[in-house]
């Protein structure tokens, strides 16, 4: 199946949904022509270089041979071409060799990369996290020796957080960093689930590692961030001996087989402190928002890929008589139930895309807007939307990939068809970079309280503006205004209930965390589609997608309030014994 | 992970949800002690013999070697033990060597088999279809030579329907059956997706094959049903030469690797007509209801397996601080969001189980009730519930298997954990034996019209009786009555709209087919849980499950009406070009 990079849809979403135009002052070089040219070129690279090796990546995967990882067929060469073409440096600062373009444009290009080949896309995605960490917290040496190599893509980066006993719970990690008496540290410990922890696409790999120092306070307050490169590098950037970092094994995973997921063994590895001692978790969280948004875009991406595959199949496969045309045999596309499903898939993709790109535009404004007020408001918006972008979009990824299999019928269950790979690949996205349950807890535990509730109040004000615009628009859009308004009212009620319970009965609030994230995400998704349909140059499809979404998704939002406000009374009393476990 | 056969839950569901007691007159031998003993023994077999070989079945799978299929490790021996223990003959007629027990009890036992090892369970499941076909439509020779061997499990059966160009669309099939001049037929053609089409667990395999005869009318009216055994058998039951049936290949599938999915090549195979010429599709549909119900039970089963695995993990894995107890580290089970998810999984499983077992009890009554009126009413109920049992339960299977992965966090994505296998295995159930889209079309196209709408009216009357009982019950159940009533009212509105549209604008009705099946299924599922909670001996858990389901699922049902009644206006105009396909 060929992959068509959704260049037009991304350009539309940037301009008419995510308000990319607000970045004009801060990023004057990101004008319309540049955006179009960047998207077009990224689309060509994704569809012509990365998509063709996706299936081999799944079939053959990465291999551990004699202690080193051999990348899946074609991946190392593709990575080199990717770096040479400048795709690793798009949004990095020109101070470190980057192109200084907005993150929103980077997210748009990477969405196409992830859609073409998610296992591949993880490699540059992890490097971006390392770039962000070193740009914000690195020493002069880090910025002169390591950062330019990461920005140019000559080297790649990794994030080493998880240990067997410490997944969502970073406080439990035990990897030790002992001062070596020469200003450095010696790392000892085991990290698991390290994405692209080793490979043969570059000469060096920059590992960022969370670890404890001796006598550090217990819990998250005793954790610091360290840099340990695969090959040691002197201050002039010259590579020397190998470091004592070893790959202990590769995981056998459900999907993304082309992405080597490593057990990393630090056995006295030389390491350097990044940022301040005992501030490792805080430093790590400064990159976390960006990483979570990237994963949200992956959810959108895998949904786009699965949708395209299902759409193509529905146009080729003939089966049965169409209730519309009476023709026999008819394309699956000409059966009402199938076409409705395809439209709903497409609507959810556009909603998720809009959420992720809006979050990215907020991040760019928070970083680069001229006035403090705009930066502060944008920061609130970025923080509020990030858990929704991550969790809601990745849930859409899994759902749409599953519908994609379904539209294929029996062929969808056969691996050669390709739909099954998307279903397998998609399943990691609600898990990594903080499970979607963690995102929901973050949303009600931290984000609802931001600026005393101003973050969520601002969001709702903006949605109300769009509802007014829908009411004033052409007749075909006015019924949607009621749907979106009812959804927003439910979101407001749910928020008020949670804010009240948060303060005095946290378990009640936490019991409805996932339900709340879905309720708010469904509502924000409808807002995104409404903005698209209201755009002056919107094609008929934008209104059709909005109406299908309004009746299929928004109409169910008020009914979700009950799940948010159910509280914990019926679950607190349930024991394992009552569930049959003895 | 160990599998605990849900013997107590099944016994409870049979008695208090599915009204198994109504079978007392027709099946006097199926008394309480017998039911308990059968469930207990099946549970032991499933958990001790079948569950332990499930992972090897997935890892190694069935293999094609020198033209014959070698079963996955341990499967052939397990099958022999399964047959020797009498599990293939439970509900077959004593006329053919069966035990004559109710199908509802058979479904309950097979649910445990499917949960323990779905790839294995498919083998006896397909034999049941062949048994049903031959018992209803076979010649004396079929009944004396083949049927007893299928009932005893000495041989297995297959159903050969699908061809590359004919999946959901049987009218398109082209396999030819040419009279051989001696009263028999010669079969030529290729069938695909043939479950357990070949294996080494028995000496012979009985293939039932849909094919056309020369000069038959086109379309489904020209299709007949044939029997072609792997090894030819004379009238005394003596096996002779091999037949010209060959395995052309095995599919490489997303899941159920232990189940050989064969391309079958009939190359002049000797075959015998089953039933009447050109009545093949009608004969096939007499077994189809039973097969669809079996798949629904598979959906329940894989959800049960995935839920148990997630529950066990949530009790073993400690991570973070519980908002309830303040203890650190706490079990995942002690985090409110996780426990809510587990309860919702369990509630959906019990709802699906109730629907499947209720359908089976209706089938038993339709077959064996003493009076004609009961049989007729039960037949309507069986026909109406079958697409819901198949589609709703298998959607629950996929959803719960996905939640099961999610609860494991990163470990869920690692194949060794086992959760991923359930996610892969589950995905076939919404597809085979008629995709869930086909079930939805069957529901609105055929089932709503049954007895002029009496089938659905009767169902709603029964649900109303339970709503009245909820209103009269203890205070903790009365709020649920409003939720179930609102859901039922929405179901009634949706039904009325569809019945009106069906008659004059079928594409409008078809556009909402899947949405309607979900709406009605969610409602019927709530009814099942309500019956359980109202049972005199119900434990507290039954009320807890009902309330979680009522607020999380039933509360959203009224909002689903909009998706049912949206019509086709916004999709009929959408072209592939508007979706970016050129």
Automatic annotation (TrEMBL), chains A, B:
Domain Acetyl-CoA dehydrogenase-like C-terminal, chain residue ranges per copy: 459-573
EC category: oxidoreductase
Oxidoreductase among keywords: yes
InterPro entries: Acyl-CoA_dh-like_C_dom, Acyl-CoA_Oxase/DH_mid-dom, Acyl-CoA_Oxase/DH_mid-dom_sf, AcylCo_DH-like_C, AcylCo_DH/oxidase_C, AcylCoA_DH/ox_N, AcylCoA_DH/ox_N_sf, AcylCoA_DH/oxidase_NM_dom_sf
Ranges where the Acyl-CoA oxidase/dehydrogenase middle domain occurs: 159-267
N-terminal signal peptide: none
A family per Pfam: Acyl-CoA_dh_M
EC nos: 1.3.99.41
Domain Acyl-CoA dehydrogenase/oxidase C-terminal: 279-446
Alphabetized GO MF terms: flavin adenine dinucleotide binding; oxidoreductase activity, acting on the CH-CH group of donors
Annotated keywords: FAD, Flavoprotein, Oxidoreductase
Catalysed reactions, as listed in the record: 3-(methylsulfanyl)propanoyl-CoA + oxidized [electron-transfer flavoprotein] + H(+) = 3-(methylsulfanyl)acryloyl-CoA + reduced [electron-transfer flavoprotein]
Domain of life per record: Bacteria
Cofactor or coenzyme needed: FAD
Every Acyl-CoA dehydrogenase/oxidase N-terminal domain range: 37-154
Record-stated family: Belongs to the acyl-CoA dehydrogenase family.
Official protein name in the record: 3-methylmercaptopropionyl-CoA dehydrogenase
The organism of origin for this protein: Caulobacter zeae
């Amino acid at each position: 199946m060929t992959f068509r990079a959704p260049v037009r849809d991304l350009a539309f979403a940037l301009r008419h949904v995510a308000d990319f135009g607000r970045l004009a002052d801060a990023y004057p070089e990101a004008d319309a022509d540049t955006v179009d040219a960047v998207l077009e070129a990224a689309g060509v690279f994704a569809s012509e270089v990365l998509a063709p090796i996706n299936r081999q990546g799944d079939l053959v995967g990465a291999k551990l041979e004699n202690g080193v990882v051999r990348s899946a067929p074609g991946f190392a060469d593709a990575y080199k071409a990717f770096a040479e073409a400048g795709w690793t440096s798009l949004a990095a600062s020109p101070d470190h060799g980057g192109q200084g373009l907005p993150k929103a444009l980077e997210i748009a290009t990477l969405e196409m990369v992830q859609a073409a080949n998610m296992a591949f896309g993880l490699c540059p995605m992890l490097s971006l996290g390392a770039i962000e960490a070193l740009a914000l917290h690195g020493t002069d040496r880090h910025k002169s020796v390591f950062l330019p190599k990461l920005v140019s893509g000559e080297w790649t980066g990794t994030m080493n957080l998880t240990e067997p006993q410490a997944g969502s719970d970073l406080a439990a990690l035990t990897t030790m960093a002992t001062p070596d008496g020469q200003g450095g540290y010696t790392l000892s410990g085991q990290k698991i689930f390290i994405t692209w922890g080793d490979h043969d696409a570059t000469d060096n790999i920059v590992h960022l590692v969370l670890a404890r120092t001796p006598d550090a306070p217990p819990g998250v307050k005793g954790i610091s961030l360290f840099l340990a490169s695969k090959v040691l590098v002197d201050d002039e950037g010259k590579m020397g001996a190998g470091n004592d970092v070893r790959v202990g094994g590769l995981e056998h995973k459900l999907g993304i087989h082309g992405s080597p997921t490593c057990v990393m063994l630090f056995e006295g590895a030389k390491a350097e402190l990044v940022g301040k001692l005992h501030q490792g978790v805080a430093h790590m969280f400064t990159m976390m928002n960006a990483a979570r948004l990237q994963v949200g875009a992956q959810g959108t991406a895998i949904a786009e890929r699965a949708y395209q595959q299902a759409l193509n199949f529905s146009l080729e496969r003939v089966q049965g008589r169409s209730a519309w045309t009476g023709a026999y045999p008819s394309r699956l596309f000409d059966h009402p139930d199938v076409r409705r499903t395809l439209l709903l898939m497409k609507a959810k993709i556009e909603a998720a895309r809009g959420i992720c790109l809006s979050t990215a535009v907020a991040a760019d404004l928070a970083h680069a807007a001229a006035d403090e007020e705009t930066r502060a408001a944008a920061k609130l918006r970025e923080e509020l939307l990030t858990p929704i972008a991550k969790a809601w979009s990745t849930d859409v990824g899994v759902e749409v990939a599953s519908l994609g299999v379904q539209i294929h019928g029996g062929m969808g269950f056969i691996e050669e068809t390709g739909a099954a790979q998307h279903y397998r690949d998609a399943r990691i996205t609600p898990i990594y970079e903080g499970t979607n349950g963690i995102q929901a807890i973050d949303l009600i535990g931290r984000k609802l309280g931001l600026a005393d509730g101003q973050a969520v109040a601002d969001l709702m004000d903006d949605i109300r503006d769009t509802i007014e615009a829908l009411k004033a628009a052409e007749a075909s859009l006015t019924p949607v205004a009621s749907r979106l308004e009812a959804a927003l009212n439910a979101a407001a009620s749910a928020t008020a209930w949670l804010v009240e319970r948060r303060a005095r009965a946290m378990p009640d609030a936490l019991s409805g965390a996932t339900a709340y994230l879905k309720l708010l995400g469904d509502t924000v998704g409808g807002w995104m589609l409404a903005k698209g349909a209201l755009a002056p140059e919107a094609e008929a499809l934008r209104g059709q997608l909005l109406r299908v979404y309004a009746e299929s998704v928004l109409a169910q939002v008020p009914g979700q309030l009950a799940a948010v406000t159910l509280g914990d009374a019926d679950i607190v009393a349930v024991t394992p014994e009552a569930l049959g476990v003895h």
